[in-house]
């Protein structure tokens, strides 16, 4: 992910759905247009719910990348 700078990130590995989704919503609301935010989650439900919410909210899902311990980092750009 060269050239992409994450503005804010929340590690929500200890949280279960809808916790990681609520963290992403909070990050997006506090971000400026164009900011890149990320949430790390180990919750299986988040793998479906978070990308679906990002699409529905009309933001950009930049990447889903694996992190240590079987978790996933969801990286999103705020578009509006």
Provide an overview of this structure.
By secondary structure, this protein is of the alpha+beta class. The protein has a single domain (8-63), classed as Translation Initiation Factor IF3, CATH 3.30.110. It is built from 2 helices and 4 strands; from the N terminus they run βαβαββ. The chain has helices spanning 19-30, 46-56, and strands at residues 8-11, 36-41, 60-67, 71-77. The chain has a 4-stranded mixed β-sheet with strand order 1-2-4-3, with helices on one face. It is globular and about 30 Å long. The model has no long low-confidence stretch (mean pLDDT 94).
Name the CATH superfamily classification: TusA-like domain
Mean pLDDT: 94
CATH class: Alpha Beta
End-to-end separation: 22 Å
Number of strands: 4
Helical content stands at 25-40%
Number of domains: 1
CATH architecture: 2-Layer Sandwich
Strand content: 25-35%
What is the third-level CATH name, the topology?
Answer: Translation Initiation Factor IF3
Shape: globular
Low-confidence stretches: none
């Amino acid at each position: 992910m060269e050239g992409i700078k994450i503005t804010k990130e929340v590690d929500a590995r200890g949280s279960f759905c809808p916790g990681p989704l609520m963290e992403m919503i909070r990050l997006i609301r506090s971000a400026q247009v164009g900011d890149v935010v990320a949430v790390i989650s180990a919750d299986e439900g988040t793998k479906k719910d978070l990308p679906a919410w990002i699409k529905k909210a009309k933001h950009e899902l930049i990447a889903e990348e694996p992190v240590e311990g079987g978790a996933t980092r969801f990286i999103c750009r705020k578009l509006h």
